[in-house]
Amino acid sequence: MPLPQPDDLTSLVLRTDFGDEGAWDAVRAALDAADEHPHATYVSELRFAGVGVHALVAEEAAADGDEQIVYVFLADAATMKDPGHPLLAVDLWDEPGRTFRVPARWFPDISANLSIANMDFAEFADATDGSGTFRGFDQS
Fold it and tell me: What does the buried/exposed string (b/e) look like for 6-43 if buried means 16 or more CB atoms within 10 Å of the residue's CB?
C-alpha cells in the first residue's frame, strides 16, 4: 500500500509513535506555529506504528511511479520526546533511506524548498551538524 500523497505543496508528516496523544498534538502545534502558512499534511494511521525507514523505502519502491513520493518526515519516538520536536526527514528518491533530523523551527524552510524542488534533499542533509540535525546553513 503506497504512502499517502499530499494533494498540495505541503510535505507528508507521518506519525509512527502512538504512545502519547498529547505529544502528537504538541508536535503538530509546533510545526503549525513555525510559519504562517501550512507546510504539513499530517497522517496518523496505526498501520504506520513503529514503521522503520527501510520498510518505507521498500514500500515506496514497490509503488507505481505516479504514486511515489520523494521524501517524508516521520514523527517518531524521538520527535515526541524532544522539546524541539525534531522530525526525521527520509529521502525516498535520490538516496533512499538517507535521513537527518529537522527541528520544528526549520521545518517550513525545508518543506517549502523540497516541495517546489528549489533544493534537493542532499543539500539539507549535507548541512547537518555532528548529531545529524539540520540547524540552518549558517550553523556554528
Answer: beeebbbbbbbbbeeeebbebbbebbbebbeeebbbbb
| pTM of the full structure | 0.93
Tens of pLDDT, residue by residue over 20-33, are 999 999 999 999 99
Q: Read out DSSP for the chain?
A: -PPP--SSSPEEEEE---S-HHHHHHHHHHHHHT-SS--EEEE--GGGTT--HHHHHHHHHHS-GGG--SEEEEE-HHHHHSTT--EEEEESSSSTT-EEEE-GGGHHHHHHHHHTTSS-HHHHHTTB-TTSBB--TT--
Judge whether 101 and 88 are in contact, CB under 8 Å: yes
Q: Which residues pair with 89 in a beta bridge?
A: 73, 100
